[in-house]
Design brief:
Two copies of one chain form a homodimer. Chain A has 160 residues and is mostly helical. Helices cover 36% and strands 0% of the residues of chain A. Chain A binds a DNA duplex (16 and 16 nucleotides) through α3. Chains A, B: Belongs to the WUS homeobox family.
DNA sequence: CTAATATGAATGAAGG
DNA sequence: CCTTCATTCATATTAG
């Protein structure tokens, strides 16, 4: 990720200028249009094409486009799942509802995705873990131990 | 693929029940060291040995190790190709530019490799600012092209 | 300023 | 090996 694009306009100072890609409104519009047109998982060539198109409105890389579609898909599915879960599981019993409908298609020419109305859903999932300081004292032993490797052991049969 | 069940918070219910394995920093260090030592595709025996080693710093299964190396290999190759493509195709100008087949697959580089001390001299600082007016004719053209089925409008209540 | 949310990016896990 | 999904991390933006 080396495409700088986030140009902050006089915000809090001390910005390392290492921002992530921020799609421009036009880019978002294009991406959403493509997504809503049925192309929810564009192949490589399509991704490149889309990137080229987006590049006219700001710096963007193939990876950004790829990430965008991945996140979009995931997000849509999660929203759907939560919505369905809330709809199909009001409060009748303490049972657990299982959903094992995963229709994976390589190329979604036949739009199997339901049209979603985004923008009015509030999702609350705030959870984060803290990373404790771990002492890496024993690791040094291992590192020192494997300093004797010189042969590149590749192509081995590990079929289970 | 299914080599063994990944050990995950067994007994002693004092863990926040992690869904997937999260390698500890020491484990990552060991794994990376091994990988950089040339062992990029360890056989079954080696995998087991590595797992035993890693287990000293946290619960881990053979499958986790296997997956880790697999993903690591894939990621490395991907970075290679992506980097090569980026080096040979510095194009971020506003206008029509023909680019050769840029084979990009998935996410780009991320981790800091131990060796490999050269940096890419790509300087794509061609950042164009669109003035506040979001009236881009090109976007409109594109949108008009794919207006077919789904509503492209957010917060829409398509009835009738 | 802090908390909550939105979203780009990274990675473990599987499927083919 | 390849692609893809699900989960998590990190950061930007916004609300309080």
């Amino acid at each position: 990720m080396d495409q700088e694009g986030a140009s902050q306009s006089t915000s809090t100072s001390t910005e390392p200028v290492r921002s992530r890609w921020s799609p421009k409104p036009e880019q978002i519009l294009i991406l959403e249009s493509i997504f809503n047109s049925g192309i929810v998982n564009p192949p490589k060539d399509e991704t490149v094409r889309i990137r080229k198109m987006l590049e006219k409105f700001g710096a963007v890389g193939d990876a950004n486009v790829f990430y965008w579609f991945q996140n979009r898909r995931s997000r849509s599915r999660r929203r759907q799942r939560q919505l369905q879960a809330a709809t199909a599981a009001p409060a009748t019993s303490g049972g657990d509802q299982h959903m094992t409908a995963m229709s994976m298609h390589q190329y979604p020419y036949s739009n199997s995705e339901i049209d979603l109305g985004f923008g009015s859903c509030i999702n609350s999932s705030a959870n984060y873990f803290l990373n404790g300081t771990t002492s890496s004292s024993q690791v040094s032993s291992f590192l020192l131990g494997l300093s004797s490797s010189s042969g590149v052991c590749e192509t081995n049969g590990m079929e289970n």
